[in-house]
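Project outcomes to date are best conveyed with an example. Our students and postdoctoral researchers have been running inverse folding experiments weekly, and each run begins with a structure described purely in tokens. The record below, which covers 153 residues, was selected by the lab manager from last quarter's runs and is presented without edits.
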């Protein structure tokens, strides 16, 4: 009888410890959707549209920003509350590839807004479709994906 009471007490203490450990664990930050959003520059060029389409296909919510105003105001903290990452892009059309596809000289970066860390950087000169493919492969390689529902920021 006494051995059974000790066993029940040990189980009760173990369960109590587990419950209090869970209760004391910090909760993940509330997600207002920023972890699933990427800020993109206001740009309607072909290259920007191709990158934007790739991000949309991957499920990213897109938020346009004025790159010049952001650089002047240094409003990165405010942008971080709205979007985890920002895409920066400079591209010049340099001609056409076979079949008439436009080609670009480009610099593309995906930057984490809260830290300023460059998560993905691409520079080169390629056809539009090759550039978008390189961008998609870079996102995959760097595991830049939207978090699943319920995942912490």
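After processing, the design step wrote out the following sequence:
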């Amino acid at each position: 009888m006494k051995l059974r009471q000790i066993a029940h007490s040990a189980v009760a203490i173990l369960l109590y410890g587990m419950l209090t450990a869970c209760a004391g664990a910090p909760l993940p930050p509330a997600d207002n959707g920023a972890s699933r959003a990427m800020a993109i520059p206001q740009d309607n060029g072909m290259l920007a549209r191709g990158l934007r389409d790739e991000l949309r296909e991957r499920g990213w919510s897109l938020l346009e920003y004025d790159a010049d105003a952001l650089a002047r105001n240094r409003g990165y903290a405010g942008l971080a509350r709205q979007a985890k990452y920002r895409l920066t892009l400079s591209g010049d059309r340099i001609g056409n590839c076979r079949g008439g596809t436009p080609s670009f000289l480009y610099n593309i970066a995906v930057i984490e807004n809260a830290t300023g860390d460059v998560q993905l950087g691409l520079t080169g000169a390629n056809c539009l479709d090759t550039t978008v493919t390189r961008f998609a492969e870079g996102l995959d390689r760097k595991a830049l994906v939207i978090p699943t529902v319920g995942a912490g920021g």
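The longest strand covers residues 85-96. The two ends are 50 Å apart (CA to CA). The training component of this project remains on track.
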